[in-house]
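Take a look at the protein record below and tell me what you see:
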Amino acid sequence: MISIQEANEMIQTVPRSRNGFFPTPLHKLKNISNDLGVNLYIKRDDMTGVNLFGGNKVRKLEFLIGYAKKHGYDTIFTFGATQSNHAMETATMCNVEGLKCVLYLVDLTEQKEEVPKANLLLDKILGAEIHIIPANGREEAEADLEAEELCRRQVEQMEKEGHKCFVIPEGGANYIGSTGFINGYIEMVSQMNELNEKPDYIFHATGTGGTLAGLAAGKVLLQSDTMIYSVTVSPKELSHLEKVAKIATESLRYIGSDKTVLPSDMHYEMSYFGEGYEKPTKAATEAIQYLARKEGIIVDPVYTGKAFSGMLDCIRSGKISKGSTVVFWHTGGATGVFAEAEIIGDIWK
């Protein structure tokens, strides 16, 4: 069995741009714990820095930007929706490290760029080069393909001009980025050990799967028996877990581990995304209000609100038994509450 110290030493063998504020706080939600009859902790990855917004993407970007810097890249490209937390945090980290940032963003909600809100506003303040691709009624995946093709052409042109371009996938979901959440898992276990606690369950929101890949890899690395419940924020095929398991295993190889992550090491909760990505749900709206009014903590309608609603349902339905110790991983993105009406729904009512 690998110790926490040995796991930390493995993480330190790969490049990292240390700009996040770690470890992030972990504390008990006392009011909700009493209300639900479980020991509920919250991992505050909404507080990872460098700025106040975006949340957990910094964990991945420390390793992605660290890799880019080590290998001499001067320009970073990445993708997302117009309210992407990952895209905004990529712009932040690029500014800290003196790199040019180019964003290809798919507009799913017909935003008015002349009056940008939330993360798109922050992207502009941060000075990123922004290319917006209107979805125009297309499925998100189809618009994403157009964004990737336009990016490919720009990368090709810039490299002809002598630049060295590093393309980060949407959500930072590759083996380099997911290493950040191996580190996050080790960090969380260390904090729980200090509290003489052991988590029975972790709940978190999952989109591209990069966060899940890292958490699953961390669990396998430490041979933990904690159950990870990943609440999907958009439709996913179960076959997507095979892709996530591959990323997780590649992350372990990257830090020198010979362990393997299997799809059976992970669990998708796919009943809580409603009509799809960036589409609010009644349950998430109620969960956002419940957490805010019980504990004063804000989660967003796109990711963490849906994940929190899924966790509440699992506890209230008895799927998670009374007395269990649960960690909710707050992956951030609270800027989503300042986005368009189509995204926030009725959270203010």
